[in-house]
């Protein structure tokens, strides 16, 4: 298995979906299920991190002249 921190969002999501299918099918023993669950949690974190990074690269926090905070497309400051 590749290191989680090297996976793209798509790779991490695909592996996470595979783990969920296997756990839902009940086709793994308890020890394997625990290992799958632990990896699944780490994969979920990786996906959340990659999504946050992608969002930050697209949007930035912008202040209006009135001092309000809102979202603006990245690079329009």
UniProtKB/TrEMBL annotation:
Main localization (coarse): cytoplasm
GO terms for cellular component: cytosol; exodeoxyribonuclease VII complex
Subunit structure: Heterooligomer composed of large and small subunits.
Pfam families given in the database record: Exonuc_VII_S (PF02609)
Organism: Phaeovibrio sulfidiphilus
Family: Belongs to the XseB family.
Annotated function: Bidirectionally degrades single-stranded DNA into large acid-insoluble oligonucleotides, which are then degraded further into small acid-soluble oligonucleotides.
Keyword Endoplasmic reticulum applies: no
Signal peptide: none
Broadest EC class assigned to this enzyme: hydrolase
Keyword vocabulary terms for this entry: Cytoplasm, Exonuclease, Hydrolase, Nuclease
E.C. number(s) listed in UniProt: 3.1.11.6
InterPro entries in alphabetical order: Exonuc_VII_S, Exonuc_VII_ssu_sf
HAMAP family xrefs: Exonuc_7_S
Reaction(s) the record says it catalyses: Exonucleolytic cleavage in either 5'- to 3'- or 3'- to 5'-direction to yield nucleoside 5'-phosphates
PANTHER family: EXODEOXYRIBONUCLEASE 7 SMALL SUBUNIT (PTHR34137)
Gene Ontology molecular function: exodeoxyribonuclease VII activity
Protein name: Exodeoxyribonuclease 7 small subunit
UniProt keyword Cytoplasm, yes or no: yes
Location relative to the cell: Cytoplasm
Any GO BP annotation: DNA catabolic process
């Amino acid at each position: 298995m590749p290191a989680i921190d090297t996976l793209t969002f798509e790779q991490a999501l695909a592996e996470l979906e595979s783990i969920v299918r296997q756990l839902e099918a009940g086709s793994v023993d308890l020890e394997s299920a625990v290992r799958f669950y632990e990896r699944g949690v780490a994969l979920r974190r990786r996906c959340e991190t990659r999504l946050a990074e992608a969002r930050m690269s697209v949007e930035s926090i912008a202040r209006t002249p009135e001092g309000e905070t809102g979202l603006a497309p990245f690079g329009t400051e």
